[in-house]
Amino acid sequence: MADLYRNYIDGRWVESESGQTFERRNPATGDLVATYTKSTPKDVEAAVAAANKAFKSWRLYPAPKRGELLFKAAQLLLERKEQLAREMTEEMGKVINEARGDVQEAIDMTFYMAGEGRRMYGQTTPSELQNKFNMSVRKPFGVCGIITPWKSMPAIMTGNTVVVKPATYTPRSAVRFVEILEEAGLPTGVVNLVLGGGTDVGNALVEHPDVPLLGFTGSTETGSEVATRAARLNKRVSLEMGGKNAVIVMDDANLDLATDGILWSAFGTSGQRCTAASRVIVHRKAQRELVDRLVSRAGGMRLGNGLDETVDIGPVVSESQLNVIHDFIGVGQREGARLAVGGSVVRDGELSRGYFHQPTIFDNARPDMRVAQEEIFGPVTTLIPVDSLDEAIDVANGVKYGLSASIFTQDINRAFRAMQDIYTGILYINAGTTGAEIHLPFGGTKATGNGHREAGTASLDFFTEWQSIYVDFSGKLQRAQIDNQ
For the chain, which domains are there? Predict the structure, then answer.
């Protein structure tokens, strides 16, 4: 019998008041991974109440001491990296080496935010008046509703308390994360976990009057709805949504390097990354050779259970997502794009038990085709030929999203043109569209986000309010903008 995982509310592991549960199965094998308590708005109410109570003392907990607790958590994450990676692969399917990378990202983020406990800099400025001191400081918001667990690190570090609602496909990673925070010694109520779906749990967090801040990761459609509803309640919201990321390959590119970068970015995590390379904008002079290389390599990729170290591509996360991906194959062909390789659901042998789709490449697509405009979120990428750098930049910018992009070129002038003119939150030169590091801001423009950034010190700006403080020690009333004349 699979383990039953519970909510974590006010320092206790508890079942939902509903008494109901839901299952999660391995998308590679169909085997039962775990059973989870299925929460209701009443569970959210209890979690928010616990977080609200804990905030009164946690906001006064010295920030360097908060950092020490997160440092302990980071060490525990490091010690359990392999276990966490294997459990992640079992639950969502990605190949084990990529899962190790995701756990490492969590380790890096936790260590980084632990260090911010002795920084979180404000500002001091001179005053325009004599005998007066000016400064600004960061202050926490209160209870943060986090609809993805790793955003909790900067929230906790800055003195907020959190209620985490993980994705229903991958709740076990969130459970392990909270277990580690508990073991590291976080006080009761600082972190709370509520398991369940977006309708019951997510909506209750969005609507709760005692949750002034929300961090959301998901589709653009859902994120826009969250933002609209939250705006009516005057909440601060960080949205990390969809992408249609482009790799530009110029005629002077190192094609060996470009091929490696495209395959890794397009088919890593079976294309289920917000930063996945789902478009390749290639100069016509390099098109044929690049296509030949990509087709040869993609056609030889091995599909299978991600726990097998020899597997290149694991399953997609669910049957419904597999159907969405495969529907786009027909869309691309009807639009006139040439199917260069792949295009099929795989049901051979043991693969018949899971949700596998061949790595797929379309060639000779137009920029306005649906396969070149819409997020597919699967192992599908589309090649769009162009005749110049100017055209390549126009095509790269010609989608509603703006998360990540890259360019392969040996010409420094072309590289700097791309840096200047491509409108994305992240840009890579001679690398793929994935691989962000946690000490720089992460996020996108246009329909990818709403201006806030995750990671780096930029994340502190989202999770804190600025307070400007003026200390007048002149002993008399001094009026700024008047008595300085």
Answer: 4-241+449-468 (3.40.605.10), 245-429 (3.40.309.10)
